[in-house]
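[Q] Does anyone have a clean structure-token version of this?
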Amino acid sequence: MKESVLNFDCEGERLIGILAEPANTAPAEVGVVIVVGGPQYRVGSHRQFTLLARHLANHGVAALRFDYRSMGDSPGETRDFLSVDADIAAAIAALLAARPALKRVVLWGLCDAASASLLYLESTGDPRVAGVALLNPWARSAATLAQTHVKHYYWRRLREKGFWLKLLRGGVGLTALRTLGGNLRLARGAGKAKTDSRSFQDRMAAGLRAFNGPVLLILSGDDYTAREFVGFARSSAAWQGLLVRPTLDLHDMPTADHTFSAIQDQDSQCRICLDWLRTRCLAI
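[A] Here you go.
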């Protein structure tokens, strides 16, 4: 494979991207745009995005990882995943221009980049998008965070003998119990927002529901963000039925953390992505 720098315009700002592509063979007709999420730039935690792009390119799939405005080496005003539609559109155009043989692209995103990809689909319905790969999507609100803590932390703690011993000895005070009570009240409100509220979670659902292409969903077992997303999707009216659609392939990775930091988990998610691309997207 080979790598090259792409500089491309987005509403008057120059964005920086790295294109990884096969060196000696023609790439597949579908390329991948790796959308950066959270406080990351185009390399990713422990070089995650770099390793993924190179893995895809070594197997015939061109991949572009880029910094959206205000991130990494791309200038611009500070923004978050709620306002990167123009950046994603510019990256798609840049990849297709750099590789004219490509017909369409797949959007790949981790955490709030997965959320941004669905928001992009909801906003644009871009026909250039052949598929989306979503890893541990971000769906956080105060209620969903409280619900996740109650389900996956507090109930476990309440079953531990050590917790009650600390309570009796004064090691755990009323503050901890009050926190639990507050989280229980917040958790009751998770997923109860009206579907027309235009919350970003509802917009994500609308983007996914309107998209007819293949979707890959990878969820880490050792990750509260993934658990929070699943809990919200199961309780929200807007998300009902979306995770069991025939166009969606769900992969659970029980040992993986949020960023797949263990090399075996990183390798596994790369293989899952490539296999999904080959079987679900490259024939499009």
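[Q] Thanks! Anything notable?
[A] The mean pLDDT is 85.
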